[in-house]
Amino acid sequence: MTAMVEIEGLRKAYPGGFEALKGVTLSIEEGEILALLGPNGAGKTTLISTICGITLPTSGTIRVGGHDTITDYRAARALIGLVPQEIHLEPFQTVINAVRFSRGLFGKPRNEALIEDILRKLSLWDKRDAKTIELSGGMKRRVLIAKALAHEPRVLFLDEPTAGVDVELRKGMWDTVAALKSQGVTIILTTHYIEEAEAIADRIGVINKGDLLLVEDKATLMHRMGQKELRIDLQEPLASVPDGLSDYALRLEDGGRALVYAYDTQAERTGIARLIARLSELGVVLRDVHTRQNSLEDIFIGLVQAGEDAA
Asked: Which InterPro entries match (predicted)?
């Protein structure tokens, strides 16, 4: 596939020495969805702002659709749609005129059929003649998305796009994102909703304190780093893990009524059969056994914590 966004050695430093981005290198392919995860202050918004030309880089290069964002800014920016975190709308402008205006800013001819299609997909058609001041916070965020799509961008940045949006509408937006992907639009998403990244992303990037810790295919990441846990519910509670089980990394939960054993799904042997046999030898009676796969949230927390420990 063709790289739509290419970032090499991107660094952003501020007076006083604070580095918001520390040599980020990243290639994003045409038509893929990349979810960028990180805690508050990790550098997610700075990265997006720098790619979009809102913030100037200290060093490094950025190309969008082959156009350098500094030397060929207009061509690069014409390919980009941006949905920012902050909601800034002209309060007395109607929804449909706000979207028309955004299209006109890029020199695009009127296309009422396209505007209607965008508004319908975002459940805004019935509100097209309402002033933005009259809308709820969730609806205002949908207007921001409509405005970002008005000039038919090939790259769409969504900076916390579903913040303050109810669950049903959030899933509707996921469907809209999937439809854009099917049209070849490249989408970069930042979110605090881990399930959002897990549901729609092709690749996951984790950033913390300006460092891009990892970028990897979602399924590969979860397979490579995911662990499973075996939960063993006991017939009678234990006061502590029996001495005869010291070879296993076990922990007690639920007031001693459950033993939890974490194991590597890619190991040649999980050790489960030997553990069950050993429990039987020690006279520990099992009531139930079930497993749990690490979620993307577990993996994300682990990566961020590991990065902080290394620092």
From this structure: AAA+_ATPase, ABC_transporter-like_ATP-bd, ABC_transporter-like_CS, ABC_transporter_ATP-binding, P-loop_NTPase
